[in-house]
């Protein structure tokens, strides 16, 4: 069983990007956290980041074709703008857990609108990198997988 973890624009800069807001953990740290959580729950983790909207759409389609168990998606700024990502998620039969490091409801009003939330199975925000691990545990629970 495979879980895709897909990250959107500017998340490659984690660790140095507004550290007071996003923290000091790098994207490599987030990936390591995801791989540890994946091992715990028996998932192979496919981990991606792109600054390009269409690339995110293609990975969502790929997860659908591959019959992935789930997708953990931090679409970053595209969360608030991308009908293409909404449509890609709607087109596949794979549950998507939307994750944000920050609490998008406690920031600028434009961040309260999420196109991803329209089609997400669940949403985790405001808990920093551990939100990714919680999302992977959540997918394991949804899939009825055993935890070791
Ligand atoms: C983010 C929140 C978005 O509003 C922002 O554009 C990001 C990161 C988060 O993880 O908190 O780039 O998705």
Characterize the structure shown.
It is a single chain. With 148 residues, the protein is α/β, with parallel strands linked by helices. The protein has a single domain (2-143), classed as Rossmann fold (3-Layer(aba) Sandwich), CATH 3.40.50. 36% of the residues lie in helices and 18% in strands. The chain contains 5 helices and 5 strands, in the order βααβαβαββα. A 5-stranded parallel beta sheet has the order 2-1-3-4-5, sandwiched between helices. Helix 4 (83-90) links the parallel strand 3 and strand 4. Helix 3 runs parallel beside helix 4. The chain is globular. The model has no long low-confidence stretch (mean pLDDT 97). It binds 1,3,4-trihydroxy-5-OXO-cyclohexanecarboxylic acid (DQA). Residues 10, 74, 76-77, 79, 100-102, 104, 111 line the site of 1,3,4-trihydroxy-5-OXO-cyclohexanecarboxylic acid.
For CATH, the homologous superfamily is named as Dehydroquinase, class II
Cα(first) to Cα(last) distance is 15 Å
Number of strands: 5
Give the averaged pLDDT, no decimals: 97
Here the CATH topology equals Rossmann fold
- Radius of gyration, in Å, reads 14 Å
Low-confidence stretches: none
Which H/E pattern describes the elements?
EHHEHEHEEH
Q: Regarding CATH, which class?
A: Alpha Beta
Considering DSSP H and I runs of 4 or more, what fraction of the residues is helical?
25-40%
Number of domain modules: 1
Q: Please indicate the percent range of residues in DSSP E strands (runs of 2 or more).
A: 15-25%
Number of helices: 5
Let me know the largest β-sheet: 5 strands, parallel
User: What's the architecture in CATH terms?
Assistant: 3-Layer(aba) Sandwich
The strand line-up of the biggest sheet is 2-1-3-4-5
What compounds sit in this structure?
Answer: 1,3,4-trihydroxy-5-OXO-cyclohexanecarboxylic acid
- Which term fits the overall shape? globular
Looking at the chains present, what oligomeric state does this protein adopt? single chain
Structural class: alpha/beta
Catalytic activity: 3-dehydroquinate = 3-dehydroshikimate + H2O
Site (Transition state stabilizer): 17
Pathway: Metabolic intermediate biosynthesis; chorismate biosynthesis; chorismate from D-erythrose 4-phosphate and phosphoenolpyruvate: step 3/7
Active site: 22, 100
């Amino acid at each position: 069983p495979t879980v895709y973890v897909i990250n959107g624009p500017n998340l490659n800069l984690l660790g140095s990007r507004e550290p007071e807001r996003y923290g000091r953990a790098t994207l490599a740290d987030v990936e390591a956290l995801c791989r540890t959580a994946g091992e715990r729950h028996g998932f192979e983790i496919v981990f991606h980041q792109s600054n390009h909207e269409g690339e995110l759409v293609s990975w969502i389609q790929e997860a659908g074709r591959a019959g992935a168990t789930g997708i953990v998606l931090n679409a970053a700024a595209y969360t608030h703008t991308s009908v293409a990502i909404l449509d890609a998620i709607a087109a596949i039969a794979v549950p998507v857990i939307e994750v944000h490091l920050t609490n998008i409801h406690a920031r600028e009003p434009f961040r309260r609108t999420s196109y991803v939330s329209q089609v997400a199975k669940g949403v985790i925000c405001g808990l920093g990198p551990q939100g990714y691990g919680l999302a992977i545990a959540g997918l394991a629970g949804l899939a009825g997988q055993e935890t070791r």
